[in-house]
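Researcher: Please predict.
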Amino acid sequence: MSSPPLGARHLQVWDLKKAETLRKLEGHTNGVYAVAVMPYGRRTVSGGYDQTLRVWDLETGQILHTLAADERFIVSTGVSDSTLGVWDLEGGPRLRVLQGHTGSVFAVTVTPDCRRAVSA
């Protein structure tokens, strides 16, 4: 993945009822391109063009973990065939096909340890 200087290098946590920023989460050294809030809303994971995944505590704004992004593979959705594909980023063939959906797959994310994918 290239490192274009896209977007903000921070996240903002908002109070939706008051329309106020609660805190600014700073730590990425290049633009942030993905955010996922964990169940129960206590933590979030952000992915940045600085090649890191950062796990944040939403209450304190502290970085709990910084993980180097694994660039060896990518998981793609199969909107037309209800599958996921796991691909070698070095230009190799598709490594495996993941089946199980009965309809189109529109979203996929990989856990920070790169051991699991969650799709919808």
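Model: The two ends are 24 Å apart (CA to CA).
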